[in-house]
Design brief:
The chain is of the alpha+beta class. It contains ten helices and 14 strands. The chain is 26% helix and 26% strand. Bound molecules: 2-acetamido-2-deoxy-beta-D-glucopyranose (3 copies). Keywords: Signal.
Length: 301
């Protein structure tokens, strides 16, 4: 009982409009398949951000040491023609916990840059500020504006950004319009793998860009899904299963397993395989209770 109350309290306390949050499954879980985020990492450098520009538009898992995101998660609802903006926002709360709850333009933020990339880091670097949640798949003009935040970007080979990556985004959009939008909720996660180089000795240049989509039915199962991954150069990314992508990512992130979409969202056909390893609800609740205060991250529960 005390345990349940404690969990409840945590949920109540985390309400409100703060953007850097301690539990983005709770605050902006609508951007994750089945409400469950991809695998998290432990360490205080990882921050969970509900990307709001007055209202939430997508969720970003950000690495304040490497000053690039691990991934952004978003919904795709329709293809619209958005105008691209040229000024980029930053996330004031990453450098100052008392800052307001919305992304802001760099000039309006006094304390900035210790825990995130700034525009000058990219200047003359030869790398683009490559979007994770893309402008191209934005579901409204204000949503497109909201993608222009440096916490949603990582150094991307500019010929890749304007070449094969852009081609891939367009192919994925067409595929989703044709196969999924009418029937399913479409959830996408786009991420990067840290590399060995840094811009201005500050911002990590990713070795890989990856993305995956899940066409989710009413029972929270990904009925159609696909994963894509490519090195940070202008070559057509590999088109593989989400399972294949997850195996690849576990290797690259050097973790024992990595889930882009939670195992509970696997379609019925192979659900049996997962059931055996699922924990009973009470046990997961205890795990939640135990891990929540210790880490910003929670893997999954
Ligand atoms: C987007 O713009 C293109 C070219 O300007 C136009 O052909 C197309 O109909 C527009 N689509 C929508 C959904 O407005
Ligand atoms: C990826 O491969 C699948 C299966 O072969 C195919 O249906 C899909 O169109 C491909 N998508 C892209 C974007 O290449
Ligand atoms: C970007 O990728 C191309 C090949 O796709 C390569 O020739 C070029 O050197 C790369 N640029 C950088 C800055 O690494």
């Amino acid at each position: 009982m005390a345990l349940l109350l404690h969990v409840l309290m945590l949920f109540l306390l985390s309400g409100g409009s703060a953007r850097v949050v301690t539990d983005f499954e709770h605050e902006c879980g609508g951007f994750f398949a089945g409400g469950k985020s991809p695998t998290g990492f432990s360490g205080p450098q990882y921050k969970q951000i509900c990307q709001t520009l007055n209202i939430p538009y997508y969720a970003t898992y950000y690495d304040t040491d490497n000053k690039i995101p691990v991934y952004s998660a978003y919904r795709f609802e329709e293809k619209i023609n958005c105008t691209r903006k040229n000024n980029w926002y930053i996330e004031p709360q990453l450098d100052d916990e008392t800052a307001g709850p919305n992304m802001a333009s760099e000039g309006s933020v006094k304390k900035r840059g210790d825990h995130q990339a700034l525009n000058k880091d990219y200047k003359n670097s030869g790398y683009d500020r490559g979007h994770l949640a893309p402008v191209y798949l934005a579901r409204s003009q204000s949503c497109a504006h909201a993608t222009f935040t440096l916490t949603n970007a990582a150094p991307q080979n500019s010929s890749f950004n304007s070449g094969q990556w852009r081609v891939l985004e367009a192919q994925i959009a067409n595929e989703l319009v044709n196969q999924c939008l009418k029937t399913y909720t479409v959830l996408i996660v786009t991420g990067v793998v840290p590399g060995t180089e840094k811009l201005k000795n500050r911002v990590n240049v990713p070795s890989h860009f990856w993305t995956a989509y899940c066409c989710l039915d009413n029972n929270n199962k990904c009925q159609i899904s696909r994963g894509f991954i490519g090195e940070n150069k202008n070559i057509t990314p590999q088109n593989i299963t989400v399972k294949g992508l997850e195996t690849e990512l576990a290797k690259l992130y050097k973790v024992s397993s990595f889930e882009v979409f939670h195992s509970s969202t696997a379609p019925k056909l192979i659900e049996k395989n997962y059931r055996a390893v699922m924990k009973p609800p009470l046990l997961s609740l205890m795990l939640l209770h135990k891990t929540h205060p210790l880490t910003e991250v929670n893997g999954r529960y």
